[in-house]
Amino acid sequence: MTRFTAVERALRTAAPHDFLPVLRQALATHYSVVDVELLMADYALTILQPVTTLPYTRRPVPVHGTRPGHAFAWQQPCTETQGTHTVVHLPVSVRGDRLGILTVTLDPEHLDEAAQQELLDVAQVLGHEIAVGERDTDLYLQARRANRLTLAAEMQWQLLPGRTCVRPEYTIGAQLEPAYAIYGDNFDWSTTAHDLTLTVTNGMGEGIEAALLTNLAINALRNARRAGLSLTDQAYLADQAVYGQHQGAQHLSVLLLRFDLATGATEIVDAGSPRMWRLRDGRAEPVELEAQLPLGMFEDTHYTAEQHHTRPGDRLVFVSDGVYDVASPAGERYSERALARALTSTRLLPASHVPRAVLHELTGHRGPVDAADDAMVVCLDWRGRPLAPGSGETPPA
């Protein structure tokens, strides 16, 4: 049994609340590590909080301007020297979804290239174990909280699939603000061997009512999707579920998209949607869609799908009304021109960074005033799947 296998086995057999002490012991035994710390990213992605005996006994670490923050932001190991020891900050993530940082301290003589790669692999195993272990313990969810979540925000965060997803064909990055008091905005995705389904929701109302409405719609869409129904039938059945519950008194806007991983063929149902932008060849512009009725507005609404094509290299960005409706202290609305400028200026950032960067600019526009609505930004970088040699197929323009 290799030392990596021994540590991996120790993690897999540990109780979820004991991952950190078990990992400390295993790394000390097999890698001569003298200290181990686990930092979890908070909901706003601005600080990294130590997982210790709650309530917290140590101060959080800012993401901006620190070595652990650099490792977290760029998902690369970051090494520094502290006295006679070497400290390595290792990203903890699950399929691109950034959870936090594992920090290990050891003598330099025990850190060669092979050991660093194995420790990086250990951090990834830890990420997967945390993702599974959160079904049985609140420890890691509690460690993410810099403040108390509102009940509506609690419901919304539990509904999300993650904030980043990385596959060879695409990368998704998403963020909601205000992170600790969101209402009804939401996003969801699911992938198969052949396609990606992405849902972006602009919720109606505030507080618990908004969260309940979004929960109903998202679960209705998931139920229809998991039954193998078409995109239009998913919208139809979710519409019926919302209308059946609220009789038209409440409704919500949803944008449903399905991408063919091999060709980039994109099917879109715009049900009073959040807005969609495309960054292609360095130019950002809104994508005009055929707006249909929001979900739940009327009984027996039928939806149709539009056909588009997403090219390798395209960046698609989806924003909710909470972005467009933000006003400066002088009452000036955040314009399409400002958003286009923000999307262009962030074109070199990875998709996981874009939502946070755009929302940060939005905060600067709003000034010190508290947000009147929640805001959502979802970024999709499309790479597509190379055609098989000799297939004879030509991708559409």
Automatic annotation (TrEMBL):
InterPro entries: Bact_Sigma-Reg, PPM-type-like_dom_sf, PPM-type_phosphatase-like_dom
Keywords assigned: Hydrolase
Domain named PPM-type phosphatase: residues: 167-382
SMART domains in alphabetical order: PP2C_SIG
Gene3D superfamilies: PPM-type phosphatase domain
GO MF term set: phosphatase activity
Name of this protein: Phosphatase
Organism name: Streptomyces solincola
Organism placement in taxonomy: Bacteria, Bacillati, Actinomycetota, Actinomycetes, Kitasatosporales
